[in-house]
């Protein structure tokens, strides 16, 4: 067990007012470490420190900000092994995921936004020619109209101010880094409120930033299990913007609080990704679809909002898809994420395991057929859910409509007499959702796949892939979020536009 953590406020490690709470390893059920339980007063102190630091940090040169972010990336890379071990212990990620998709991605994001700090923030606009008629008033002439005739302009991105970053439990490294790094690159200061289940990694990130030379108050970290801690971090009058990754229900609550003071928001919320598989997919394409959809069973144990959990498959390949998905799931090793060869680790907590299992049981009662999984793995400790495949699902089932956030795939078959009818039916079924984060289309006809993709009401579409382009904008339609980040779009998200005009 690591030493008890302290809060990070105004460049100092501060003892929490409300003591500590235990962070539990979801695989072994042992205590990983003790996380600090902040008071609301300490949260407000962190926001005030960020407000005070903003005045100077926002005026630093892009080169200075880039240097801090670059040094932080180097420190994280140096200590990658220890940080990956910590991430695995507190989040339940497998060893490969903890290294490659958590800490390594965090390193990459600090490196990306070290470069991002140097991206141009001003865009020259075409001059506007104003007609200078004889009736032009003295007031207009004073503003540059009239005889001048031409107005120049530039659009400039400026930092928003103090940003509260509320992070998710499924990736305690990449998710915070994806918020903190672009926010700092743009000249903002931050208050980070990590998920209560696995906050220790975020304190490791704060330590790396402190070692990298981030000035006091620019980065602050406060944690706690009490909802009042998160509410204070959002509602503080010193906060100008909230960046949140998590459930739609919590995002709606944060949006209500932000709305009172018109605070800027960046929300990456729930998802129920539709994976459309047409019967023209072919043998090779079907194998690719199975491998892509199968990531729901393994990657973060299904605890990922981008997972293709809702499969909409044409009847001609329905049974083949089910057979191959069942074989895929059955070949996955479920167990201790620290052991070599483990692919499926635990979900984050006992409560979440019970929630996932309840969805599977509800699906049985509603008429779904459990092809594989559906029973708790026989392991001595840990919060495990067996990869579960639900067949014969219908659009109205809870398992089809609601985000389960676990290794559960629901398959909805559909019939169509013509290719055109197949497209219309698939699009209708995919769009029949409160969510719209990322959908997927598998077809051997690329033109058809793109035609369908353009009509999906979702922030992203994967065509014959579940891969991501990490420069493409990321975010959702409908209840899947507000705003876009990733790549240069994240720099835009953490900035405000200012116009400057002058007479030509």
Automatic annotation (TrEMBL):
What Pfam families does this protein's entry cite? Answer: Aldedh
Note whether Oxidoreductase occurs among the keywords: yes
Alphabetized InterPro entries for the sequence: Ald_DH/histidinol_DH (IPR016161), Ald_DH_C (IPR016163), Ald_DH_N (IPR016162), Aldehyde_DH_dom (IPR015590)
Coiled-coil annotation reads: none
| Gene3D superfamilies (alphabetical) | Aldehyde Dehydrogenase, Chain A, domain 1, Aldehyde Dehydrogenase, Chain A, domain 2
The Aldehyde dehydrogenase domain sits at 13-500
Q: Which UniProt keywords apply?
A: Oxidoreductase
Q: What is this protein called?
A: Aldehyde dehydrogenase family protein
Task: Name the species this protein comes from.
Answer: Streptomyces huasconensis
């Amino acid at each position: 067990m690591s030493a008890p953590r302290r809060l990070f406020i105004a460049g100092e490690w501060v003892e929490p007012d409300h003591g500590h709470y235990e962070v539990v390893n979801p695989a072994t059920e042992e205590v990983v470490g003790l996380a600090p339980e902040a008071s609301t007063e300490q949260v407000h102190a962190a926001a005030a420190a960020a407000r005070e630091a903003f005045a100077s940090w926002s005026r630093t040169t892009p080169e200075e900000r880039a240097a801090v972010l670059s040094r932080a990336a180097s420190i994280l890379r140096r200590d990658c092994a220890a940080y990956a071990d910590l991430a695995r212990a507190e989040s339940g990620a497998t060893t490969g995921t903890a290294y490659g998709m958590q800490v390594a991605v965090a390193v990459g994001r600090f490196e990306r936004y070290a470069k991002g700090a140097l991206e141009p923030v001003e865009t020259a606009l075409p001059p506007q020619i104003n007609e200078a008629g004889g009736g032009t008033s003295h007031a207009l002439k004073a503003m540059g109209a009239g005889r001048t005739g031409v107005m120049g302009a530039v659009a400039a991105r400026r930092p928003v101010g103090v940003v509260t970053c509320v992070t998710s439990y499924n990736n305690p490294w990449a998710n915070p880094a994806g918020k903190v790094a672009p926010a700092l690159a743009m000249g903002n200061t931050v208050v980070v409120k990590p998920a209560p289940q696995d906050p220790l990694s975020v304190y490791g990130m704060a330590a790396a930033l402190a070692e990298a030379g981030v000035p006091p108050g620019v980065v602050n970290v406060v944690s706690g299990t009490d909802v009042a801690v998160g509410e204070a971090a959002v509602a503080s009058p010193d906060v100008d913007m909230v960046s949140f990754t998590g459930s739609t229900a919590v995002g709606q609550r944060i949006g209500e609080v932000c709305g009172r003071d018109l605070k800027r928001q960046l929300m990456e919320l729930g998802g129920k990704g539709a994976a459309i598989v047409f019967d023209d997919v072919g043998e090779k394409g079907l194998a690719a679809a199975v491998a892509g959809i199968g990531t729901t069973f393994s990657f973060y144990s299904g605890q990922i909002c981008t997972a293709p959990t809702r499969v909409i498959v044409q009847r001609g390949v329905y049974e083949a898809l089910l057979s191959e998905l069942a074989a895929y799931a059955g070949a996955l090793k479920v167990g201790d994420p620290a052991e070599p060869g483990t692919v499926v680790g635990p979900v984050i907590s006992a409560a979440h395991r019970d929630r996932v299992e309840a969805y599977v049981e509800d699906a049985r009662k509603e008429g779904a057929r459990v092809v594989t999984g559906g029973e708790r793995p026989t392991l001595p400790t840990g919060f495990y859910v067996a990869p579960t495949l639900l067949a014969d699902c219908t659009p109205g089932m809870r398992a089809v409509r609601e985000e389960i956030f676990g290794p559960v795939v629901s398959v909805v078959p559909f019939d169509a007499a013509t290719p055109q009818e197949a497209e219309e039916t698939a699009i209708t079924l995919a769009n029949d959702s409160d969510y719209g984060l990322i959908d997927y289309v598998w077809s051997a006809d690329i033109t058809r796949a793109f035609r369908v993709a353009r009509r999906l009401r979702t922030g992203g579409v994967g065509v014959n892939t579940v891969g991501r382009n990490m420069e493409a904008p990321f975010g959702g339609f409908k209840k899947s979020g507000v705003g876009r980040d990733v790549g240069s779009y994240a720099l835009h998200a953490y900035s405000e536009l200012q116009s400057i005009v002058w007479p030509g």
